[in-house]
Hints:
- Helix 11 runs parallel beside helix 12.
- Strand 5, helix 8 and strand 6 form a beta-alpha-beta unit.
- By secondary structure, the protein is an alpha/beta fold.
- About 50% of the residues lie in helices and about 10% in strands.
- The protein contains 15 helices and eight strands.
- The radius of gyration is 23 Å and the shape is globular.
Amino acid sequence: MTLLGEALLADLDARVGRANAEVARLYPGDRVDRQPTSTVYVPADRVGADLTARHGGEALRLLDAHAPDGAALVAGFGLEDLGGGWDPDDLRAGVAAKLDREPVEDLRVDFEDGYGRRPDDEEDRDADRAGAALAAILDGPRAPWSCGARVKSFADGLHQRSLRTLERFLVALLDGTGGVLPGGFVLTLPKITTPDHVALFAGALAALEGAAGLDAGALRFELQIETTQAVIAADGRIALPGLVAAGDGRVTAAHFGTYDYTAACGLPAAEQRLDHAACDHARHLLQVALAGRGVRVSDGSTNVVPAGDTTAEVTAAWRTHARLVRRSLAHGFPQGWDLVPAHLPSRYAAVQAVHLAALEDAIPRVAAWTAGTTAAGVLDEPATVTGLLTTLRRAIDCGATTPAAVLTATALDPARLAR
């Protein structure tokens, strides 16, 4: 017997169960598979079978010319303030190895702003050629971990051209892969202003799957958030949940678009930059709206590139880019997008340096948690331990450390580190 009564408690159980089931449906949890740190956008007419080798080769050339040793690398990327006992020469070796082994983590063949509007016959040829080239890239020694294409926007009235290009690109890609869709393949839908764009694109992908003999749901896409309407809907609500719902389970990520968004907010050209407060507002709305939904977030790009090939010109761009990468990481955005090979050294150097510094704090705290004790000066709660484990995984993914080193240092159960 209880004071509340058995019937009331039974009813409460049923109601709480239904409420929790609905929350679980809407918030299935964050994904724990690998997330690329960099997405490289390349105009479709510049995509060839040697693309990743060319990007890696140029990035390594710049690294050798302008950061020939660890001290030059730390100074060139503005990493002097990062504490810890990590070795600058080890960091440089790690960045060079990354550029040689996997210079492009996530490749997006661009048919939108980076490519522009072309005559139909020219875009048809580029779609056919780029699809075949991507298949060749994926069969090569420096294949990206994930890949895809950015199509033209439905908001610009180019929906038919967008789908025609996508169809040709996809047919050429599948011809080159023996009909197998590459793992991690994802499309990008830009300049979204209404959930209808998302729903119509999802419907078109379903039709393409059927025509191409692909499994239902195989074609997935990310939302490029670069309009004010994609952040705040016409009724004043945050737009992101509605956009994701309109994708019918196909939306994997949301990528922030720096320049279209800042222009839409009315910022002058000199203020259209990734670290503007207007971008912070949009990004954090995006971050909060999508947390726990299984939809990843990615920061945008910078348009700062080396003005020339002198060390002063290259390192000026590197320092700006590395500072922005570190800022994104601090704000909880582990991924961003890059436009030129010169962005790759500063991306990977900043990411690896941040994670090397973080490991010095994370490893003893995880080791203490594993041993059932507490690290000096901190009382970690389960949520914080989850964050520390994420730090360890991302440090492994970016090449800052290895699984064996982490397991040895923490005595962690491999199952807890594994995904």
